[in-house]
Design goal:
Largest sheet: 5 strands, antiparallel
CATH topology of the largest domain: Beta-Lactamase
Number of domains: 2
Strand order of the largest sheet: 2-1-5-4-3
Mean pLDDT: 83
CATH architecture of the largest domain: 2-Layer Sandwich
Radius of gyration: 18 Å
Oligomer: single chain
CATH superfamily of the largest domain: PAS domain
Order of helices and strands: HHHHHEEHHHEEEH
Number of helices: 9
Strand content: 15-25%
Shape: elongated
Distance between the termini: 57 Å
Structural class: alpha+beta
Number of strands: 5
Length: about 180
């Protein structure tokens, strides 16, 4: 079941039939896509993404994963995430071990953990959306094992018309690097 897709559809107030009509596909085909029983073609994924304000790549991220590259990313301290204009997570890869992807999707950072770090992250994402500019910032997050510092890079996600439809962030934990002292 593609719960993120169901949530995106419901947030727009659409029925499956309304999405299918907008995308010029059969409602039963759309229902199968939503259930995860079928994958849409890239053309259909783009139509659904446009109708619901999500990234079409979200449908295919599992199909194009190169095992060694994926292993490298999973073992890194890098988090890659896509948020919609309401700053709700639509897709996330490699979240911090204290968080589970299924508990993050459809939520804003302040709904997951409300602290100075998450508020700074939300402000950064909103500034990226508002300005349409790429940005980077170091942000400290309080976690159960102590404070973690992330180097966060973000940029707007644009549709074909150049309209911002979300924001993507890549966050790299740099806590240990930042804590190393420099020789005197």
């Amino acid at each position: 079941m593609r719960e993120w897709l169901v949530k995106a559809r419901k947030q727009k107030g659409y029925t499956q039939a309304q999405v299918a009509t907008q995308c010029y596909i059969d409602r039963s085909y759309y229902a199968q896509i939503e259930k995860g029983a079928r994958n849409p073609s890239m053309e259909v994924a783009k139509k659904i993404a446009t109708a619901l304000g999500v990234s079409p790549s979200t449908f295919f991220h599992n199909q194009y994963e190169e095992p060694s590259f994926l292993l490298l990313l999973r073992n890194s301290q890098m988090v890659i995430a896509y948020c919609n204009l309401d700053l709700e997570y639509i897709w996330i890869f490699n979240p911090h071990s204290e968080f589970e992807s299924s508990n993050i999707l459809g939520k804003r950072d302040d709904e997951i953990a409300d602290n100075k770090g998450t508020r700074e992250l939300m402000a950064l994402k909103q500034e990226i959306i508002d300005s349409g500019m790429k940005m980077r910032k170091k942000i400290k997050f309080p976690l159960t094992h102590g404070e973690s510092i992330y180097d966060v890079y973000g940029e707007p996600i644009l549709d074909k018309q150049g309209k911002t439809i979300g924001v993507i962030t890549i966050s790299l934990e740099i806590t240990k690097k930042s804590q190393k002292s420099t020789p005197v």
